Amino acid sequence: MSSAVPGTHTVSPHGAATGKPKNPHAGPWILAATILGSSLSFIDGTVVNVALPTLQRDLHATGADVQWVVEAYALFLAALILVGGSLGDRLGRRLVYVTGIIIFTLASLWCGLAPNVTQLIAGRAVQGIGGALLVPGSLAIISAAFEGDRRGKAIGTWSGFTTVTSALGPVLGGWLIQNTSWRWVFFINAPLAALTLVLVFRHVPESRDEGEKGRLDVLGAALVTLGLAGVVYGLIEWGATTRLSDPVVLGPLIGGLVALALFILAEDRERNPMMPLSLFRSRTFSGANALTLFLYGGLGGALYFLPFNLQQVQGYSPTAAGAALLPFTAIVFLFSRWTGGLVGRIGAKIPLTIGPLIVAAGFALFARPGVGGSYWTTFFPAVVVMSVGMALVIAPLTTTVMGAVAQNRSGLASGVNNAVSRTAGLLAIAVLGIVVATAFNSNLDKNLAAAKAPPAVVSAINGQRAKLAGAQVPASVGAPERAVLRRAVGESYVSGFRLAMLTSAALAILSAAIAFVFIEGKGAAGPQSATQAAGARTGVHERQPRPAR
What we know:
Elements: H1 27-58, H2 63-91, H3 93-113, H4 117-145, H5 148-179, H6 184-187, H7 189-203, H8 218-241, H9 247-269, H10 283-313, H11 318-323, H12 326-346, H13 349-366, H14 375-378, H15 380-403, H16 410-451, H17 455-462, H18 479-518, H19 530-536
Helix pairs in contact: 1-2, 1-4, 1-5, 1-7, 1-10, 2-3, 2-4, 2-8, 2-16, 3-4, 3-7, 4-5, 5-12, 8-9, 8-16, 10-15, 10-16, 10-18, 12-15, 13-15, 13-18, 15-16, 15-19, 16-18
C-alpha cells in the first residue's frame, strides 16, 4: 500500500529496471532524492487538512468548497497513479519523476497565490496530476538502483523517513499557519522541490523497462477519471443541496456511474489494462481490496473532519491540531514491523479481523467528546485506540495483497491496492459530507430555536449554513448572546461529526467481517507464501500483457 497513510507503501508494479548508478557511492544520495520527493506529496496530503479551517475563513469558502480543495487533489491522484507508474516504465523513471516534481511545485505556487477558492481548487487538481507522476516514481527508482538485500534495506529506510516526514508535516504546517499564513503550506514545497531536483540530476540514473512495449491505457484513465469526478461532484452537491432529486446532483451521479461501468468493460477488453480484472479472480485479493475500500474510507473521512472540530469548535490552534495525530504516526511506526511478523506466525486473517474492530472502537471514541474538555481525556484515547488497530492492519494487509497473486504480478497488485486506498478516502469524504451537513442543519434549527435568538440574527446565521462550523455570529450581537449562539453552532457540528464517526466505525466493522470471510488463515495454499510475499515487497515485477479480445 502507499504512504497515503503513514507506515504504508507500494512497490513498483512493472518490469525489471535498467540503469544502475554509475557511482557506487550514489546510493545515499538516491535515497535522499526519493525521500524528499515523496515527502512533497505525503506531507501535502496531511498538512492541507490542518489548513482547511483557516483558508475557509480567509477565502470565505463553503463546506463544499473546502471539500473540493481536498477532493480535487485526491481525484486525479487516485485516478492516474497507475498510469504514472506505466509512464515511468516506458519513458524513463527519472524523467517522469522530475516532470511530476515540476508540475507539483508549479501547482503548489499556484495554490499559494490563489486569490479565491476556485483557483485554489484548480491548482489542487494540477497538484494531483503531478502527484500521480511523482508518487510511483520514488520506489520505482529505488528498485532500479538497488539489488538484493540492499534494495530491501533501501525501501525500509525510505519507508521510515517518509513516515517521520508525514508525522512532522502537520505540526510544521500548523506552526506556519499560526505564525505566517496558510499559503506557506504550499510555498514550502518550492525549496524542498529545488533541493530534490538538484539531487536527482546529480545522482539518480535514468532507468526504464525495455520490455514494456504495449500501448498506454489512455481510455481506461479517461473513463475512471470522468467516472470518479462525476460521482464525487454529485455527492458533494447532494451534501450542499440536501436533495438527491436535484438535476445538479442526479445528472453527475448517473454519468459518473455509467463512466465507471464503461471503465470496467474497457479494462476487460484492453490488452494492457491499467487495472487488470484478472487480479480479482483471487478471492483473497478481492477481499483485501474490499477491506481496504471500507477501512480506509472510514479513516480518510475521520481525518478530514477532525481538524474542523478541533479548530472551529474546540478552539485548538493550528499547531495543536496538527500535533493531535502525532500518536497515530508514532504507534503505527513503532508496531508495524512487529505486526508484519505476525503473518508468518498466525496468518493474516486474525490481525485483519481484529485490527479493524479496534479501529472501529477508536472511531466510536471520537464520537464521545462534546464541546470543551482536555485533549488527553477527549481525543487522545480515540487516537491511541485507532492507531493500535491500524498498526495491526497495515503490514499484514500489504503482505496479503501481494501474496494473493503470482509473484510476477505482486508489484502490480500492490499498485492497484494503493489506488483503491486513495479512492476510498476520495469517496468517503464526499459521502460523509452528506452525513455531516444533514445532521448539522437539522440540529442547528433546534439549537437556534432553543437559544431564542432574534429573527435577524437567526437569518444571518442561516445565510452561512454552507460553512458548517465556520459560520460566524454577527458582530452586533453582545458577548453573552454570542457565546450561546457560538455554542449552538459548535454543538450542531459536533452532532454531525459524531454521526460521521459512527458511520466510519460501521465501515471498519464491515471491513473486519470481510476479512473474516475472505482472507485465508495460516497454512492456506496460495500463489505465494507469506515469506515470498514479504520478500516481493523489495522487488520489481513484470506485468504480463494479455491477448486482445
